[in-house]
Amino acid sequence: MEKHELKPARVVILISGGGTNLQTIIDQQEAGKLPITICAVISNRDDVQGIQRAQKHNIPVIVLEHNQFPSRESFDGRLQDIIDSQNPDIVVLAGFMRILTPDFTRHYEGKMINIHPSLLPHYQGLHTHRRVLEAGDLKHGATVHFVTAQLDGGPAIIQSSIEVEKSDSEESLKEKVLRQEHKIFPLAIRWLAEKRVVMREEKAFLDGEELAVGGVQFDKNEI
Ligand code: GRF
């Protein structure tokens, strides 16, 4: 079967915030550049801009507030039921700020991806821009990776780097890195939807080739 004859992949997107990555995915899908159907957007907060972004495009939104649950396990269990009711091929964490339980990550192994604002495996966890400035690094960036039980530790699919300038602040780095995120996230989603990228035994493969640590290095001229 030709690639363009593939049925669009069913995608569920999880958010916790402003949703600029979500917006990019919606825009590319609407422009016909992504072979996906966005079945639902799920937010763990009821007051974030990402919700309005989805609603504006008539995408069903489900709010599931984590603070209404007695434990991480109970929240993740309910979240899993809701996601599975959409029968997704791909689960996208687009700024979803929750640590996930191992049962949950195992359940979506190979079909859940996350975007992280650093050049993984460097700077897993929070406050990446601040830590890069404190360390005096000359390079920074963003990485899309498969989600495994290890926080920000699953195999990388693609990353894009930026130069850190002397004049940079946390805020300016955030903006620069977000611009790169908006380029690489849709690309990784497309590869996953086209089944060009897969995860096997905690390693990522693109077109059958095992990817190096950090994944594909995004070349600005490539697209
Ligand atoms: C991004 O920096 C992403 O890397 C991180 O959360 C932020 C989400 O931004 N995981 P937005 O909500 O997509 O604007």
Summary?
The chain has 223 residues and is of the alpha/beta class. It has six helices and eleven strands.
State the main characteristics.
223 residues, alpha/beta, Rossmann fold, 8-stranded mixed sheet, 3-stranded antiparallel sheet, 6 helices, binds 5-O-phosphono-beta-D-ribofuranosylamine
CATH superfamily: Formyl transferase, N-terminal domain
Series of H and E elements: EHEHEHEHEHEEHEEEE
- The overall average pLDDT, rounded, is 96
The helix fraction, in percent, is 25-40%
Blueprint (SSEs and pairs):
Layout: E1 9-15, H1 20-30, E2 36-43, H2 49-56, E3 61-63, H3 72-84, E4 90-93, H4 102-107, E5 112-116, H5 128-135, E6 139-146, E7 156-163, H6 170-193, E8 197-200, E9 203-206, E10 209-210, E11 216-217
Parallel strand pairs: 1-2, 1-4, 2-3, 4-5, 7-11
Antiparallel strand pairs: 5-6, 6-7, 8-9, 9-10
Bound molecules: 5-O-phosphono-beta-D-ribofuranosylamine (GRF).
5-O-phosphono-beta-D-ribofuranosylamine binds next to helix 1, strand 5 and helix 6.
